[in-house]
Design brief:
It contains six helices and seven strands; from the N terminus they run ββαβαβαααβββα. By secondary structure, the chain is an alpha/beta fold.
Length: about 190
C-alpha cells in the first residue's frame, strides 16, 4: 500500500531485553516509523515492560494493525477484539447489556466499559477502545463523526469525545490516531505514579 507521506529518517533503536537488562545479544530493530503515534505507544510501553490490548468497533481492526506495523510490537501487544456488532460488545468485551440497551453503542461509558473489559479479557496492563459513527448515516441518534476513544490502565480510565468530519476513512484513521495519543499521554502521566 502506498503511503502519502514520508515517514522521515530511519532510526535504529535498541530494545531492552525482557528482564530489562541490556546485553550484547539485545535485538536491534530498524524502526522507520518511530515517529508515528503507534510507535510512541509501543516504545513507551516497552520501556515500562507493560502490555496493551485493543477493543475496536468503528475502527474494525485498524488500531491493531497500526500497532503490529511497528517493529517490536510483540513485546507489548497482547491482542484485541473487534466488536462491530452491538451484541458482541456485551458478549466479548463485557459491556453491561443494560448500559447498551439504555444508551446504545456510541456512548462514553460504553467506550470505557469496552476498554475495561478488553484489558481484563486479554490480561493486559492497558487497553484502548474505539466506538462511534464513521458514516455515511447517523446511528442511534449519534451524528456521523461522533467517536469515543477510551483507555483503561493501572491508574484507572479516561475517555475522550471526538466530533470529526470527513469521509469514513478519515474518521476511522483519525480515531486510531486519537486513541494512540490518548494512551501515550496517559501512560506518560502515570509514569511516576507507580
Amino acid at each position: 500500500m502506498a503511503q502519502d507521506h514520508d515517514p522521515g529518517p530511519t532510526h535504529e533503536t535498541p530494545l531492552p531485553a525482557p528482564d530489562g537488562e541490556r546485553s550484547a545479544a539485545d535485538l536491534r530493530i530498524d524502526r522507520p516509523n518511530s515517529g508515528s503515534p503507534a510507535a510512541s505507544v509501543v516504545h513507551v510501553l516497552a520501556d515500562r515492560g507493560e502490555t496493551l490490548a485493543v477493543v475496536e468497533s468503528l475502527t474494525g481492526g485498524l488500531l491493531a494493525a497500526a500497532l503490529v506495523d511497528v517493529a517490536g510490537a510483540s513485546q507489548v501487544f497482547r491482542g484485541g477484539l473487534v466488536v462491530y456488532a452491538t451484541e458482541l460488545k456485551a458478549s466479548l468485551a463485557d459491556v453491561p447489556p443494560d448500559l447498551l440497551a439504555e444508551r446504545g453503542p456510541v456512548d462514553p461509558d460504553v467506550a470505557t466499559a469496552m476498554a475495561v473489559g478488553g484489558r481484563r479479557r486479554c490480561g493486559a496492563d492497558w487497553a484502548l477502545a474505539t466506538t462511534g459513527v464513521a458514516g455515511p448515516q447517523p446511528q442511534g441518534g449519534a451524528p456521523v463523526g461522533r467517536v469515543y476513544v477510551a483507555v483503561a490502565g493501572p491508574a484507572g480510565t479516561e475517555v475522550q469525545r471526538l466530533d470529526l468530519s470527513g469521509g469514513r476513512d478519515a474518521i476511522r484513521a483519525t480515531s486510531v490516531t486519537a486513541a494512540l495519543r490518548l494512551l501515550t499521554l496517559r501512560a506518560r502521566a502515570t509514569a511516576g505514579a507507580g
